[in-house]
Amino acid sequence: MVDPVAEVEAAMVVVRRRQTRRTLAREVGMAPQDDAIQQVIDALEAAGDELIGVNGVAEALSVDQPRASKLVAAAVAAGLVRRETDQLDGRRTNLVLTDDGRARLDAVHAIRRARFATAMEDWPEAERAAFAALLTRFVSALDR
């Protein structure tokens, strides 16, 4: 008998390997060392409208503050992120994506979506919608 949980685990391992930031970096034309920078801009995007600084990046990436500081410095040096003084607390610095950072994210999103669209191109629309709903529900449940 097939164990659905084991099948999901195996599939998720394959997805993780194929969707690494390094793989995406090659496709977007980034140098391999830019992988860390991509993690920073992914964290900023995930924060949405919430303004975060180095500590927020550290938390999002599950790294210590000195490591996050180095990653942020690299993203700033690459011109993908800029530091802005917090308007409510002048001692705080928020991180903001630059236009180049947003363009990099858009390129990564386009590559991911093209891959996913290709993988599902033979699926009926109802199956695509069902898969999207189930996968979203599954990912949300992982946070419990």
Automatic annotation (TrEMBL):
Keywords recorded for this protein, A-Z: DNA-binding
GO MF term list: DNA binding
Top-level taxon: Bacteria
Coiled-coil zones: none
PROSITE patterns: HTH_MARR_2 (PS50995)
Annotated SMART domains: HTH_MARR (SM00347)
Domain spans labelled HTH marR-type: 1-140
Signal peptide: none
InterPro entries on file: HTH_MarR-typ (IPR000835), MarR/SlyA-like (IPR039422), WH-like_DNA-bd_sf (IPR036388), WH_DNA-bd_sf (IPR036390)
Protein name: DNA-binding MarR family transcriptional regulator
